[in-house]
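Sanity check

After download, print the first record. It should look like this:
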Amino acid sequence: MPHEGRHIPLADIEASLEAAKASLKPGTSMTISGGEPLVDPRLERILSSARKRGIREFTLQTNMIGLGQPDRFARLVRLGVSRFDASFHSHIPSRYNAITGSAGLFPKAVEGLKALAGNGSIQVSLCVLLTKLNYQDLPALMGFFGKLQKEHRPSRALPLEISFSLMNGAGMNTASRMAVDLGLAAPFVWEAIQRCLKEGLKPLRFDGEGAVPPCILPKPADYACVCRFSQDRVRYAVDFSGETGSVGRAKKPACRRCPYDLRCLGVPAEYARLFGLKALRPPC
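Expected structure tokens:
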């Protein structure tokens, strides 16, 4: 979904899949993101088109709205969706509505969540966005997920995975009122991780574009990404209050000496402009 909101033409998607066909390796999987894939009427056609070119496994990034519709979930699984990265940011309806900018969708999201949890053959990663509205409720949210797992997840299935992410730079520009200082959120993230372990959930390492810097935790080694990231967009500086706080990624100069430097993207420059970098505590 381009930033201007227009759908990528189906012909362009087909052309990209065809161009990738020759270089696909056995076992290649594909992630479908958006926007929200479930509201795109072309979703199943895109999955079928990718299958014709040799891709058999898919990850769907989704808010789960609509997964409770009769046969919708089953059809996606039959087409090869074996993993769902599902966004669910609060178990409190009013806060869910405020974070997602919606009204009345909370019950449908819970219905979709129960559908995912109840299928033991698929992997489910529940993605929680850190905001000013939900950071204090994170431990209780993990309790909500734990209860749902006990009641709906088959006993021999893989546990529900939990990932925490930062708002991206665009989000911090358009909804800065929801952005949260990691210095405030860090103790609650750590408590939520401990609650995950208690509930039998699986907290994931901090990975990807929205990853939280591992140095905010008491044990960064346990949650730092195992892969290395290109640091091309990262600037190491003290002050991001001006133009440097408008684009890219931000780190402290001391982060260069951190053992996890190459496995971390720091924070969006927009975050550094709003809050500074005092929450980053690289274990130099």
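If your output differs, re-run the checksum step. Summary of this record's structure: The chain has nine helices and nine strands.
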